[in-house]
Amino acid sequence: MTTKELTDRKNTKKERENLLEVKNLKTYYPIHGGFFKRVVGNVKAVDDISFTIKKGETMGLVGESGCGKSTTGRTILRLIKPTGGQIIFDGEDITKISGSRLRKARQDFQMVFQDPYASLNPMQMVGDIISEPIKNFERRDKKELEEFVKSLLVRVGLPEAAYYKYAHEFSGGQRQRIGIARALALNPKLIIADEPVSALDVSVQSQVLNLLKDLQEEFDLTYLFIAHDLSVVKHMSDTIGVMYLGNLVEVASNKDLYSEPLHPYTQALISAIPEPDPKLRKERIVLQGDVPSPANPPTGCPFHTRCPMAQEICSQEKPPLKEVRPGHHVACVLY
Amino acid sequence: MTSKSATSLQTPLLEVRNLQTGFKIDKQYYNAVEGVSFTVDRKQIVGIVGESGCGKSVMSLSIMHLLPKGIGKVRGGEILFEGTDIVGYNEKKMNNIRGKDISMIFQEPMTSLNPVFTIGYQISEVLLNHQDITKNEARAKAVTLLKNVGIPRADQIVDEYPHQLSGGMRQRVMIAMAIACQPKLLIADEPTTALDVTVQAQILDLLKNIQEVNDMSIMLITHDLGVVAEICDVVLVMYAGKIVERATVEDLFENPQHPYTQLLMQAIPKMEEEKERLATIEGLVPSVKDMPEVGCRFANRCPKAMPECMQITPRLEDTKGGHEVACLLYEESWPREERVGAR
């Protein structure tokens, strides 16, 4: 691809409209306790986050375990009921819809799961696994459906014969390809990929990442790419959101986030990644302690307990996410 | 210093010679580790990298005599620890070495700690087994050890159970246990794979500190080239049960020679690079049951494979200044007869 074409592509992307808008999304899990199993508290898995994804772009969500990135993905798919906020998909508010309307809307957003072993039914033929979502929504001639599923298998890099096999006959990378074919079956607009490569070896990981990029171009897909590995997220995404304890602490384009991380947590996260180059052995910012429990989050800024730059105000007030540079949002009192 | 310890300083701490470890499948043994030789010197951190199924964990289990009984077996070769071959050691003799001279930490700290005993009890157990001390002394020592590995409130945590701790804390407890008797060699099998990056950075720092303070050697097994670059001195790259490349960490990253190592490095997305596509390695590792008898084991996936690669088994040869590679591409200078004879 030439540079001109690349800039053209970037420009057309700019004019594109929002496919997904998340406004003040909250997802709390109740904690039951006491004699009558009453609700005694909440785990604030996702606590008031907002972001938008433009058509054809990839938004990456990165954070450590327990930061709420998977819950965010599942809430957007409406697999979990949101506690508050709005999810606007392609102009339609899907936060409260249910029944047949939700079922219909779900055609447009699909998910690729982390564990390619657990997310495929071991009792079903691969062909049936992939055709099941299609059978759910439309009536198609048997022969025609089989042809279509086989073409999907070929598209994700599997042989046609895979149609008649079972999941256990495939390696981890191949299973993930089956999972991707299933997500593509309904020709969705948005694919939420929740740690799609973290169970795979590096050589296989790169195959799957390349496939996801190719498919995005070919089918004009929009991705929400969730992972804990910042270098993978950076490779895949146009915009990256960094999450900590249920909050978005920084949102920026992938270049800005790497060249100029603003939030102290993002800085520590980038600095903690071991670079595959012994000459870069650097003085790392090593954070002290662990992530606090989301059932009992610290007051004020969620990160102040581990922040090397914490001030007194940090423990009292939660800083809002605000735009400090064009397209670069950060939630920190320093800015 | 006695003459005995003077000689022992010259022999490498651990020397593995032509190790072959097999697993029994349908009454027949198949080798998961095939003729691996390497040394670990004193105070050295040796990294062993490879993808799943390359035999890196099997190798460490062979050294520790922890292979599943009746299924896995060391079928040939020698494991010399301070000059003595420990392959033939019985359980009793091994118990004297394990935990005292060689210890091991594992990937999953939750499953390797016993959930029904307190942290303090589990650390004291190691001390009581190997040292002549009382229970109270052992407990006091356990508290010091916990402090040394950076556990806050050590005097309280010593009475807590593994489930009360986070993953990073559990791995610290495992490390405290492993270094309790100041072993000469620590085998760390994917010690940070289950941890978050910020916690991984803490644990790597800790391992490096302990290694320097205790003058210990570490054999670090990992799939993550980043971790290797961060703390190792020497790296072995394994593929399908064999070592394909061995070099100092600087050499390996500056000038990777084996096609497998090169592809592995190009396949990782890097933070400072903008790349549209990543390198991939097509195909799969052959399973142990149908590993080719002769020829390079990577040949069927190698973009640089030549017809000879299927017929000649490459040997691990020094290419220049200690950088060893097992690949025919680097054996060009050999006379042809000898290359065929190398089988």
TrEMBL record, chain A:
SMART domains: AAA. The keyword ATP-binding applies. Transmembrane segments: none annotated. It is an enzyme of class 3 (hydrolase). SUPFAM superfamilies: P-loop containing nucleoside triphosphate hydrolases. GO terms for molecular function: ATP binding; ATP hydrolysis activity. It comes from the Bacteria. Keywords: ATP-binding, Hydrolase, Nucleotide-binding, Transport. Its EC number is 3.6.3.-. InterPro entries: AAA+_ATPase (IPR003593), ABC_transp_ATP-bind (IPR050319), ABC_transporter-like_ATP-bd (IPR003439), ABC_transporter-like_CS (IPR017871), Oligopep_ABC_C (IPR013563), P-loop_NTPase (IPR027417). Signal peptide: none annotated. Residues 20-270 form the ABC transporter domain. Coiled coil: none annotated. One of its GO terms (biological process) is peptide transport. The keyword Glycoprotein does not apply. Belongs to the ABC transporter superfamily. PANTHER family: ABC TRANSPORTER, ATP-BINDING PROTEIN, TRANSPORT ATP-BINDING PROTEIN. This is Glutathione import ATP-binding protein GsiA.
From TrEMBL, chain B:
The keyword Aminoacyl-tRNA synthetase does not apply. GO terms for biological process: peptide transport. SUPFAM superfamilies: P-loop containing nucleoside triphosphate hydrolases. It is a peripheral membrane protein. One of its GO terms (cellular component) is plasma membrane. Pfam families: ABC_tran, oligo_HPY. The keyword Membrane applies. Gene3D superfamilies: P-loop containing nucleotide triphosphate hydrolases (3.40.50.300). CDD domains: ABC_NikE_OppD_transporters. GO terms for molecular function: ATP binding; ATP hydrolysis activity. It is found in: Cell membrane. Its EC number is 3.6.3.-. Keywords: ATP-binding, Cell membrane, Hydrolase, Membrane, Nucleotide-binding, Transport. Residues 14-265 form the ABC transporter domain. PANTHER family: DIPEPTIDE TRANSPORT ATP-BINDING PROTEIN DPPD, OLIGOPEPTIDE TRANSPORT ATP-BINDING PROTEIN APPD. Belongs to the ABC transporter superfamily. This is Glutathione import ATP-binding protein GsiA. It comes from Bhargavaea cecembensis DSE10. The lineage of its organism: Bacteria, Bacillati, Bacillota, Bacilli, Bacillales.
